Amino acid sequence: MKGIILAGGNGSRLYPITKGISKQLLPIYDKPMVYYPLSVLMLSKIKEILIISNPEYIGFYESLLGDGSHLGMRIEYKIQEKPRGLADAFIVGEEFIGDDSVCLILGDNIFYGQGFVQKLTNASSIKEGAVIFGYYVPDPRELGVVEFDEKYNVLSIEEKPENPKSHYAVPGLYYYDNSVIERAKNLEPSSRGEIEITDLNRTYLNEGKLKVELLGRGFAWLDTGTYDGLANASNFVNTMQKRTGLYISCPEEIAYRNRWISKEELIALGKEYEKTEYGQYLLNIADEF
Questions:
Q1: What kind of fold does domain 2-249 have according to CATH?
Q2: What pTM did the predictor assign?
Q3: What are the tens digits of pLDDT across the range 241-287?
Q4: Planar angle of CA 155, 156, 162, nearest 5 degrees
């Protein structure tokens, strides 16, 4: 399976913060925001990743992450000239995906919770069809909403419904078989001129091939689309890391625990940042084993 991080858009809801920088490069406490979706893909054991962004920002991502070899990965980059909807990622990334299945994660999604790795493992093992996630929210009317049966087969999926059929919103994390490329190509643009991810998911739903994994009690799905959301996400990461002593979404640590890099390589990465708590954390991880 391959992974795509969609880090496009203008971030206009966060102006003036994002006037001159991609939203997904903003800091969430001690890391760039893009580290969080990157870590989700890494926890899914996905080593080949494509980052899609605007032409004016793509170079910043390349400077930050390079070709991924320092993490034992391969990272590529593609430009999305203008926002054409989330499902456009599979058209932009067609050559990268090739004959593989693929996971798409939005660059501003932050997840945290015990048992998350097992849920990612379940979703990434998909051979046919698609898997989306469901997260309980009190009022899902401004979000995509999923309805499902006792076997987690999806019964309906709606975008911003006035009368939601469930309290489960759909976060920006999706796993698909390889047919997603042709499905995306065959979608008609919506009234706002975009290829909608909900319409893509409905193509799987109509064939009975759409499953949902629930993120239950104890999980956090953090919104970073507002000023308060950014601050709350940073405060959440700060609090959890200080209380537990363990970092959230640390790509170097995940690469090491996945055995994609050696202890010597982890130490070298830690020494790059040895004047920071982040660097000292990496060095401490290396000392554990």
A1: Spore Coat Polysaccharide Biosynthesis Protein SpsA; Chain A (3.90.550)
A2: 0.95
A3: 999 999 999 999 999 999 999 999 999 999 999 899 999 999 999 98
A4: 140
